[in-house]
Amino acid sequence: MEPAVRLASAVVDPLVRPLFRPEEPHQGEALLASLVTFRGVAPALGYEDLLRTARELVRLAPDTARSHDEDEATATVLARTLWTIGEVDVTDAQAVRLGPQDFARRLRSAVPGADRELSSEAAWFHDSLLVTVCLHILHLLIRRSPALAERMAERSHRIRQLVDLNDVEALRGRPAPSAADAEFEERYLRTVVEQFNRVTIYGIDLPNPNTPDNWPLDATYLSLTAEFDAATTPRPPGTAPATATPTPRTPE
């Protein structure tokens, strides 16, 4: 199932990557609890770090997907749900096999009633956002473990497809630029045209000193002919050296 709340991998990856340890060679499957950085002996991250990550994930979600009144409550539930990655008896291979939808359902089942304080709309948003986060987590797992991706080639391919589709849809869903942004883009384009709308050809000698040495880019092409050195190239008697002035041709 495709995520209903879409977030581009470019913004999610930097948030979920610190939640997992760098790739370490291991035989067979590895428990997710052994891969996360917020559990175990001397964990690098704590619950507050996970809560900050959850808040940022909620903040990055499209405005049309939620009511901002419950952002903090939703982030708290999301952090509690993600915390269970370090508790559930699920391996990296099992998580990939489940896929984002069922993996998210597995995590939710580990914290029953966690969203009881949320409205139905906020609970839906949390569940949809969790599926998206799980998709990017699974994508991270297959990238950090080439052996896992090779062993589960079909599932890994499907996850990559979902991430690519998610990225495209996330870009399509970006809000239209503001009036100030549109005005800046227009001024920027005009400046680029004014400064760089000329072409200069080097390495040719122009017999007419009044001929310009550069031409506008909107000229379709320049008509050029070669001039041979009279000292080294013979020519028929009574003929003059061939010369030509580059002539801009504009579109018809």
From TrEMBL:
InterPro entries: NNH1
Cytoplasm recorded as keyword: no
Keyword Mitochondrion tagged: no
Pfam families: NNH1
Gene Ontology molecular functions: ATP binding
Ranges of residues in domain NACHT N-terminal Helical: 4-167
Region (Disordered): 230-252
Segments of skewed composition (Low complexity): 240-252
Keywords assigned by UniProt, alphabetized: ATP-binding, Nucleotide-binding
Name this polypeptide is given: ATP-binding protein
